[in-house]
Design brief:
CATH architecture of the largest domain: Beta Barrel
Shape: globular
CATH topology of the largest domain: Maltoporin, Chain A
CATH class of the largest domain: Mainly Beta
Largest sheet: 22 strands, antiparallel, barrel
Helix content: under 10%
Number of domains: 2
Number of helices: 5
Distance between the termini: 44 Å
Radius of gyration: 26 Å
Structural class: mainly beta
């Protein structure tokens, strides 16, 4: 009790010692008029407000110290600066410069709270709302609109991210500020996160082990959760979507409210889809899926202390398609199918000092994955679906922690020291064992610094990681499914160095050199049996070593009021790349695959532009091209490397002078996916194809109620095609055909 009282006394002392109020006005440079509804946000404090009709804003109960402040408004360049707060009232007047290019946001996945143009690392960012307007059915489908990002799919309900040719455990996913652990080792294991309640997506393309440890060798997909409402405000909304191809429905509703100290939000979502129809007008049997998602959060903030607690429940039933069979519109998955339940609980607490801060992030995830086989595979056929026992029943519990201390700034130098780790327990309760009961423990120590000069920035850091994996013996020696006892220890040192420079006018150059590593996962180390989701007999290798890589990344950007251009190139050298290949043998008609290692190289990049001609303020022309090549040391190509892709978009924006329609837009996009002939020895080439997409939307005033309408048509020409990254390609099953998405969003 005395310790609790001591903590409360310290917090009261900090909060009562130094309080500050920030006031200001925001106006437009081109007219000197005040700007209403400008977003003003302090990313370190995660506190924001908007300007009133006279351009004025006020934020109270701010802690003394030095913080970044960001002001953003459509049609103007995002303002970013550092402000020192002292006791009393501080005044800050901001003038925004006009810009036709989209607003910038603060990058959260890197630690120094920079805008994209200020960041040393190139990080792609996209609002989930903008991905939704592109007609994506799922989040894993939506991220494929980001250059350099694709998805390995099993139908439309199951997909996992691919960043520059790397996927599975080489891409780390973060949600609610913690690493997402949901048994993602399997090829047919999807992302497992609903887009509802996710504000934006950030993608680090390349090794990020310095910041995130093992499994970030290929990159990071960072999902920013929905923000709390601004101070002293309450919001609510209902979102409805209908998809013609699958006769699918998606609905979510949210409510959030914030006072000066306490904040609360909640959002629930439900999704249901029937089997999708390919461009050949045949439905892909058992590609149906259902999902329920609940996200809620509670926050408290006063002076130098703030904390938030978030919880996410995701429950999914996912059919695993294998053939073109029954043609119906049923929504209950048939065997084989997955039943997945995930509970994600996270807390993030910050304590601010005058020139430093401490952040502690804790997470707990309980993931229960059940897989049900076809009835003919069950020894005693069940009398009803409820009697069907799962072939696989795996529970994975993960506790993670991340402690970061922002040291006092020394002139131009900012430094963060951190301690990260997790403790993970995998248990089996099903009839079969795919991976053994095992305990995994991680711990990592890191230090990273940012040095700011007048026209350039340097970022560098170093990290040490240790991972231990202990697995139990399973089965009978010499029989299928036997797994020997496992006790492995993996260590790794990693470093990163980056340089950013403003050169010439409106040009930014970046060069980054970073190393990364990935410890082999349990499936790669221990598999010894048929994996029903992949229809192959997999044999692991308990002697696998760490994968290690070194990547150089060069980026060039030009940005003016009406034109943006970017070119990114990379070369990635991977030592002891782990992959799986057939050995030519069969067990019960299932091909045998072995996990082996060999050095590999990947190289390629992305290039594109965004043109907004003057004085045609309503016109946007965007284009991007992406390419990646992956090869083993013996010159064989790597598997599941995405084909080259060219994307061209023409977008028009409009507003009605009568104000009954605002924020209107229409677009047309042509995606050209080229032939993929650079394939692994056990893959086949994939023919290229073109997909034509279009859409329109606007904010309307209907019966005095604001309504946002969105209509998007994907694959308008109903092209019959198969993606190289589709796991159904081996069965000659087409990807989804024409699909029209009709969406309504109603603010309350």
């Amino acid at each position: 009790m005395k310790y609790l009282l001591s903590i409360l006394f310290v917090l009261f002392y900090f909060n009562s010692k130094a309080q500050c109020t920030l006031r200001g006005n925001i106006s437009a440079e081109d007219s000197n008029n005040p700007l209403e509804q400008v977003s003003v946000y302090m990313p370190q404090l995660e506190k924001g407000t908007v300007t009133g009709s006279n351009g004025e804003f006020v934020m109270n109960n701010l802690p003394v110290g030095t913080y970044k402040i960001v002001a953003s408004y459509m049609g103007y360049q995002t303002y970013s600066s550092t402000i020192t707060l002292t006791q009393g009232t501080i005044t800050l007047d901001i003038v925004l410069s006009p810009s036709a290019i989209e607003m910038e946001e603060v990058i959260v996945s890197t630690p120094f709270h920079k805008l994209q143009r200020e960041n040393v690392m190139k990080v792609e960012q996209a609002a989930v709302e903008s991905l939704r307007k592109m007609g994506a059915i799922t989040l894993s489908d939506g991220i494929t609109n980001i250059p350099g990002v694709e998805s390995v799919s099993t139908g439309v309900g199951i997909g996992k991210p691919v960043i520059r040719g790397l996927s599975s455990n080489r891409v780390l996913v973060y949600s609610q500020g913690i690493r997402l652990e949901n048994q993602q080792f399997g090829d047919e294991h999807g992302l497992g996160i609903s887009a509802a309640g996710v504000e934006s997506v950030e993608v680090i393309k390349g090794p990020a082990s310095l910041l995130y440890g093992s499994d970030a060798l290929g990159g990071v997909l960072y999902l920013n959760p929905e923000q709390f409402a601004n101070i002293n405000s309450t919001k609510g909304d209902i979102n409805l979507n209908y998809f013609t191809n699958t006769q699918g429905v998606n609905a979510n509703a949210g409510f959030k409210t914030s006072g000066e100290k306490f904040k609360f939000l909640v959002r629930g979502a439900y999704t249901s889809h029937a089997d999708y129809k390919g461009g050949n007008s045949l439905r892909v049997t058992n590609s149906r899926f259902n999902e329920f998602d609940l996200k809620t959060a509670l926050g408290y903030q006063l002076g130098k202390f703030k904390t938030e607690l978030r919880y996410n429940l995701n429950s999914s039933d996912l059919g695993i398609p294998e053939e073109i069979g029954i043609q119906d519109l049923g929504r209950t998955p048939m065997s084989p199918y997955q039943e997945i339940n995930s509970h994600i609980l996270s807390s993030k607490s910050d304590l601010f000092f005058n020139n430093s801060s401490l952040r502690i992030t804790l997470g707990y995830i309980l993931n229960n994955r059940k897989e049900f086989e076809e009835e003919e595979d069950v020894e005693i056929p069940p009398t009803s679906p409820d009697d069907l026992k799962p072939a696989l029943d795996m529970k994975l519990s993960t506790f993670s922690y991340n402690v970061q201390y922002n040291l006092p700034t020394l002139g131009r130098l900012q430094t963060i020291a951190g301690l990260q780790g997790m403790s993970q327990d995998n248990k089996n309760f099903g009839e079969e064992v795919l991976i053994p009961n095992a305990i995994t423990n991680d711990i990592g120590l890191l230090a990273t610094s940012h040095i700011h000069f007048e026209k350039s920035d340097v970022q560098l850091g170093i990290r040490f990681d240790n991972r231990t994996i202990k697995g139990e013996e399973t089965g009978i020696v010499g029989e299928e499914g036997y797994i020997a006892q496992l006790d492995r220890n993996f260590n790794s040192f990693n470093a990163a160095l980056g340089y950013r420079i403003d050169f010439l006018k409106n040009f930014i150059g970046r060069i980054n050199l970073a190393s990364g590593f990935r410890a082999p996962n349990l499936a790669e180390l221990t598999s010894n049996g048929v994996h029903e989701g992949t229809n192959r007999f997999e044999i692991g290798n308990p002697n696998l070593k760490n994968e290690k890589n070194l990547q150089i990344d060069i980026a060039l950007e030009y940005g003016s009021q009406h034109f943006e251009f970017f070119a990114n190139g990379f070369y990635n050298i991977i030592s002891d790349y782990i992959f799986i290949e057939p050995n030519g043998e069969f067990v019960d008609n299932n091909p045998v695959y072995n996990y082996i290692q060999q050095d590999a190289n990947l190289y390629g990049g992305e290039i594109g532009f965004h043109f907004h001609p003057h004085p045609l303020d309503w016109l946007h022309v965007q284009s991007s091209f992406e390419s990646v090549i992956g090869q083993l040391d013996n010159d064989d190509y790597l598997p599941l490397i995405p084909a080259n892709k060219l994307s061209n978009t023409l977008r028009l924006e409009f507003n009605n002078s009568q104000k009954w329609i605002t924020d209107g837009y229409t677009f047309i996009t042509l995606n050209t996916i080229f032939d993929q002939n650079r394939v692994a020895t056990f893959e086949t080439s994939t023919m290229g194809y073109n997909l034509l997409n279009a859409g329109f939307g606007a904010s309307l005033k209907l019966f005095k109620q604001d309504v946002e309408l969105m209509v998007t048509a994907l694959n308008i020409l109903n092209k019959d095609y198969i993606s190289h990254l589709s796991r159904l390609k081996v069965d000659d099953i087409s990807n989804i055909g024409r699909n029209i998405n009709i969406g309504l969003s109603i603010p309350l």
